[in-house]
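Hi F.,

I've been meaning to write this up properly since the lab meeting, where we talked about keeping a consistent format for the predictions we share between groups. The idea is simple: the sequence comes first, exactly as it goes in, then the structure tokens exactly as they come out, then a line or two of notes. No screenshots and no reformatting. I'm using this chain as the first example so we have something concrete to point to.
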Amino acid sequence: MAKSILEHFAELPDPRMERTKLHKLGDIIAIAICAVICGAEGWTDIELFGKSKQSWFKTFLELPNGIPSHDTFGRVISALDPDAFELCFQSWIQGLAGSGGGKLIAIDGKTLRHSFDKANNKAAIHMISAWATANHLVFGQIVTEAKSNEITAIPALLEMLDLTGSTVSIDAMGCQKDIARTIIDGGGDYIFGLKGNQGTLHEDVKLFLDDAIGRDFKETQHAFHKTVDGGHGRIETRSIWCTP
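Output, unedited:
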């Protein structure tokens, strides 16, 4: 059974002194997260959201003194240990991602637009993200200094995730032995893109498949699937051969 959000944040250290605890830390965290998911952009928005949904929150939160004020939200959350909060948050997100059984995790790198700082000679921020496709959510991210550092950043991101029973897809940049080993050791499987950055392997696979397709896969174990899709003014045909 999946854990509740309160259970995932139960171990988060409370930075307040005992005499100042008018509200449960778990209540503050749960209201704030729900509010931000629904578009809240500041402490006042979070307070207003909590008050507008107070009857619903009471169905699973204690709320001993009602909904906290915006000052309380700001003061308490700003005082939290960010590393401890991140661990709890990742635990919760991974729980959501795994609640539907097998997971398909897409690892991808993106450069954040307008994140460069010319005045201080800082390059744009490049993020590596783990995307749970079935849940439409990101449940792991790590910053790299440049796109070329994805090879070293991807294993660090994978170490943060529970890969048990999952299938991890990565583009050709991640087609590396160490990355494959990290996924297997974590209990997952992988689908890698293969391009010219792995020159010898790419050429071997291309020669093998060209020969097999030319012989219509006679005496070669394989599976085949074909899809035809239309859209954006074109018809796209995809032919997929799979062989051990």
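Notes:
The CA atoms of residues 143 and 244 lie 35 Å apart.
Residues 5-94 form one domain.

If this format works for you, I'll send the rest the same way.

G.
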